[in-house]
Amino acid sequence: MSYEQTKIVDGSIFAELVNAGVACLNENAKTVNDLNVFPIPDGDTGDNMLHTISGGLKTMNAADERDIGAKARALADGMLLNARGNSGVILSQLFAGLAKGLSDLEEANIKQFAAAFCEGVKTAYLSVVSTVEGTILTVARESFESAADKVTDNTDLAEYFGVVLEEMKVSLENTPNLLAVLKEAGVIDSGGAGLYYIAEGMKRAVSGEKFDVDIHGASTLKNIDFSLFDENSVMEFGYCTEFLLRLQTAKVDVESFSEKTVIDYLSTIGDSIVCFKTGSIIKAHVHTLKPYKALEFCQQFGEFLTIKIENMTLQHNETVKDELAFTKVEKARKKFGVVTVATGKGIIEMFKEFGADHVIDGGQGNNPSAEDFIKAFDDVNADHIFVLPNNGNIILTAKQAARMYEKSDIRVIETKNIGDCYSALSMLDYSCDDADTIAANLKSDTETVTTGMITKAIRDASLNGVEIKKGNYIGFTDKTMYSSDQSAVKTFIALCEKLGIGEKNFLIVIHGATAKEEDKRLIKEYAEGLKNIEFYEIDGGQEVYDHILIIE
Questions:
Q1: Which one of 274, 296, 322 terminates a domain?
Q2: What is the DSSP string of 109-163?
Q3: 8 Å CB contact between 405 and 381
Q4: Are 351 and 359 in contact (CB under 8 A)?
Q5: Do 366 and 441 sit in the same domain of this protein?
Q6: CATH number where 434 lies
Q7: What is the rounded distance in angstroms from the CA atom of residue 497 to the CA atom of residue 533?
Q8: Which residues form the domain of 353?
Q9: What pLDDT digit, counting tens, does each position of 450-501 carry?
Q10: Are strands 461-463 and 409-412 parallel, antiparallel or unpaired?
Q11: Partners of residue 539 on adjacent β-strands
């Protein structure tokens, strides 16, 4: 069905637009991923944005069919919990502001619809402490505000999205002129491109195009061996029970209702409880032998949007190797704890040995969501929790989770790489018994370390005077390219020298999953030949980076 001449948008139309936007982003996620400033195979902006917005589809599609306010709110709530990466967090805030602009509306005219997107832009800008122009924020602001200015009483949906897409394309193509690093790399902003594809999908839906929006597919489902819980098995671990509850005004005062009511009850029937309120939605997780009691109790306050109940005895037997089963007894509350993020078995084990209480398995290409952080906070169960994200693209997500979490004092230390975290954790000391001092020390301990990465280039480029050929190795820090060669070892040595290895005291090399044994041997030979340098090597097992070097 075409909506080209439509001047009123209800919940049903809104849902079609969003689903089409998600489907279009899914079609182009790899393109967005490849729009990376550095030509390395860790570009995940498209995946992060796709995970974020698709995370809101189930809740949106379960909301009242014609109420646009309810649809937008449900979408925003789901996106908030599933937000990943900087662009994902910003996208979730854009739609949170959109929901705010559409609140209490059953349907919206084009002026209201356009104004709501402008409200989304304001909310997105407020979510970022230090805004940078030439990013998804710029593309959203310039396109939605310009389109809103051109809306008249006669504007229909096709005209509105036509202007949005036209302005978005112009803004996106201009991002390299606003952000020097984009111009140097010869790419447009990836987050802005992701937003463009969402808007393109919406416009195509307005014209009547139909999309296959089942973006997950059966291949993502786990194959469970049900023989692991047979007729003679004993229920040992209970049921992992999760649900989203929409509070109902007919049952409670939605504004004043506190999730503590739910938490207090769930504590009497289970453990490993995660529960918080976002708008009129309660998100709850509990391990219990009697899941029906949790559902029965909570239904007196609202109605369920989603419910998931899994046999944890079966789940435990199935996933012991993945360490996914929760312990049945909740950890004792302690004063201080650390949550960090890493990928690679060796790195994860190292951080745990250094004192990290919970290491979220994630990083480049697999950014954790806000909900992943919230579950980690609950697992640590400490008065003060220090968070080390170890990736500039994860910091906003960690901060969003910190704002959502009310049971502990959460301090996000803005570590941007594995080296920052290594330095901070290696000096971790709680003896001063003061959270402010510990946080300050963690931050200062990252300031004396330099981290370099070695990986293969996925395209030709010229950065910082370094000529790069697709398939060659490249050596760089977070922001600067230093070396490139067909040889990983030559690239490594050149990077070390550019980073002033001769004036340093420590060199730690973390070898990745794809590192060649001969390269490891030659790197060790080089490092042991350096004067006045203490050398350590670790089999990190990380993806993407063949070698990570930490210099102090």
A1: 322
A2: EHHHHHHHHHHHHHHHHHT-SS--SSSHHHHHHHHHHHHHHT--TT--HHHHHHH
A3: no
A4: yes
A5: yes
A6: 3.40.50.510
A7: 13
A8: 334-445
A9: 999 999 998 899 999 999 999 999 999 987 999 999 999 999 999 999 999 9
A10: unpaired
A11: 511
